[in-house]
Prior knowledge:
Strand order of the largest sheet: 3-2-1-4-7-9-8
CATH architecture of the largest domain: 3-Layer(aba) Sandwich
Radius of gyration: 23 Å
Bound molecules: S-adenosylmethionine
CATH topology of the largest domain: Rossmann fold
Amino acid sequence: MSYNFRTLNYLGSKLRLLDFIEDKVLDVTPQGAGICDLFAGSGCVSRKLSRLHSVVSCDIQGYSKVICNALLHKFDVTDKTIEGFFKSLDNECTNKLREAFAPLIELEQDAIDSKNLEVLTCILEHGSLEVFNIEHNLSCLSDQLVVVCKNLKKDGLDDVRSLISRYYGGVYFSYKQAVEIDIILETIHRLISEDNRDLFLAALLSTASDIVDTVGKHFAQPIKARDSKGNIKITVYNKAVKDKTIDVVALYREWLLKYRNLSKSDCQHITMQGDYEQCLKSLPDNVRTVYADPPYTRDHYSRYYHVLETLTLRDTPKISTVTIHGSTHVSNGIYREDRHQSPFCIKSKAPEAFRKMFELTASAGRNLLLSYSPYDETKKTHPRVVTMQQLIALAEEYYDNVETVSAGSFKHNKLNSTEHFLEASDEAELLIVCTNNE
Ligand SMILES: C[S@@+](CC[C@H](N)C(=O)[O-])C[C@H]1O[C@@H](n2cnc3c(N)ncnc32)[C@H](O)[C@@H]1O
């Protein structure tokens, strides 16, 4: 079952619906024809469809392209290359980075060992070295932050080689983990040829997604350390013990082997990073069906996964700011200033974005399978930006046949109870299948 492969802890991942999606795609797609996974995200749909079809996967985010490359293409990475890679993680330069961060690494480790909630909270709230360099907030960490800053300057390591440690160390990862991520990242860029790089990078993205110290395993915001009265929550400690102590190098090795050992079909695949419109306009002729899983709420994916984007781009992004009661601060989540704002998440822009999608797929003679997950009020998600009715009305302007199928109905039929069926199908994932007569 290696075609059902989880890469990231991803909001709205279609991992559990892969068999259903593949079935529905097969219903409308001739054998040998190509498929486009238009909003590929964590890549699991692209991977599944690559079993029987040539796939073009598209997403606006660079990390998605890296992961899709790792999932779809064949690589030549031997055990020897992998062993050589792990040996190279320890050298004079990498040890310098570890030493430079030692004051913060030790402080955090002591705080975990002694269950010191105040220090752990201080690290979550004031731990980013990059933010400290912008705002100069005084905290119980200031002395260590100043020392680490000097160490990095002295060793000439205050560049991309300490990117993850400086920006997110202490906040999303422990300092120790962040340093190891930087070391792995530097080693990938230094040693691994471009042909194989995305395999190594994808394994690092999966590692980062598994270890991040947040409640939802995404990067929308660091753990909120205090309750509404300002008291420190015990979660701070429990999560630190669970997440911040995970051994990055050992987990990375597991992920690298998992990616390396994936079986691949002989179909040819393409990955694209770009806006859906641009991707649709440049699809090769063999693509007969487009599977689309756009965002449906006002939550931009770029906010949830910005750290993965920075890991991928390895630039030194400007951090966005927020203004509250007239005073401007660096964003709590340490977001990239240039993070993508999707038209699908903006109420005034979404209908036009969907129209464009229907128009471009239909005019090129392609089928469109559009995923829709109805709003579940019991979960803490935001309402949908467009309704099912709006989507169907739009689809019917461009397609002769617009059919809605529910992923839930199979499962619920088995329950053999009308009541259960209605209850469950309210929340069931839907696919809007749009086809035109010949
Ligand atoms: C619901 S997620 C896709 C999840 C994916 N099917 C999976 O199972 O992992 C939506 C994706 O759309 C991408 N996206 C949002 N706006 C986009 C746009 N204008 N063009 C291309 N991709 C976009 C986001 O980066 C995100 O990865």
